[in-house]
Amino acid sequence: MERPALSVLINNYNYARFVGRAIDSVLSQDARNVEIIVVDDGSTDQSRSVLEAYDSRVKVIFQENAGQAAAINTAVRSSTGEILCFLDADDWWAPSKLSATAAAFRANPQASLVYHRLQPTLVDGTPTSKPIPRTLCSGALSPLLTRSAGWWPFPMTSAVAVRRSAWNAAGSIPEQFRISADAWLVGIYPFLGDVIAMPDPLGFYRIHNNNWYRSTEDATTLRRRMTHWQRTVEATNLFLSTHQLPARLRLTDHHPYRIALAKLQGADARTRFKLAVEGLFFAGEPNLLRRTRDSLRSAGGLSRLGLDVGLSEAAK
User: Fold this and answer.
1) What is the C-alpha separation between 2 and 274, in angstroms, rounded?
2) Nearest-5° angle of CA 100, CA 199, CA 169?
């Protein structure tokens, strides 16, 4: 039997209402020589019955709940494709996603990671807002990540594909990434090869309240994100040191972290001005106009947001 060229790896946890659409979008791809592996990470809803209905068309693995990183690692260990394509169970793809991804890897033999934009949608699948990320980054990105503490206009999990040889070099995703395991993919693989961005929105990103996304920002969410960013910097530096790569990240270069900290602590006019100036030179957003807009917007809203967070904390 011919070895699959592409492995589609779907991680699912309690998304019985969504995972069928994700799988169907893979089955309807115009690419051939594709294997589909779904790892159910200890779901307690109706996911099992949904997944078992696909029979031999999909390889399904059930495991006890261990988090997104563990689910993805299990899927990769069970796969054989040369290109690994990741899909969250609540998202889905356009029919040409896999063929376009394979073509991009063929055209760029030095690429470790290929990605595309995603079209955000509401829970019911209705498109909303513009495709993300707005800024696209291609080529050798390691200098950018070194200057920005690993932050860049990165794609979400369902937009990411990596070469198996790069996965083998990087190793499994550390299981500390129980959620947002894509932080490892988009933070490590630019140090292992080129990154290729495809401009078309070849997938759909469903927006709904989950373990990471909240429609409103509060102190708890901010602290969770800051802890995640800090641990990601630490994990990246450990990887770089272990692989004897010269780059090192500094959390002080992570402008979103500094903004979040100021939101929690409150910020006077001098601090807002300082952060606005720093934001104008932040390497994590290569597009000058967006960088300027984001810097002024973030710094300008610090006083109000810091007060809001403080009030929400005082009300607890």
Assistant:
1) 59
2) 65
Here the tokens at position 31 are: 């690419």
Pairwise CA distance, residues 145 & 122, whole Å: 31
- b/e burial code for range 195-210 (CB count within 10 A of at least 16 → b): bbbbeebbbbbbeeee
Closest CA to 18 of 55, 1, 42, 43: 43
Res 281 pLDDT > 80: yes
Topology (CATH level 3) of domain 6-206: Spore Coat Polysaccharide Biosynthesis Protein SpsA; Chain A (3.90.550)
Instruction: Count the Cβ atoms, other than its own, within 10 Å of residue 313.
Output: 12
Cβ 284 vs Cβ 152: under 8 Å: yes
Q: Cα–Cα distance between 182 and 237 in angstroms, integer?
A: 17
Residue 63 in contact with residue 74, Cβ under 8 Å?
yes
pTM over 0.85: yes
Residue 24 in tokens: 């169907």
Q: Quickly state the pLDDT bin for 299 (edges 50, 70, 90).
A: confident
User: In whole angstroms, what is the distance from residue 290 CA to residue 309 CA?
Assistant: 26
Compute the residue count for the chain: 316
Residue spans of the domains in the chain: they are: 6-206, 219-314
Note whether 221 and 209 are within 8 A (CB). no
**Please, what is the Cα angle at 90 between 97 and 113, to 5 degrees?**
40
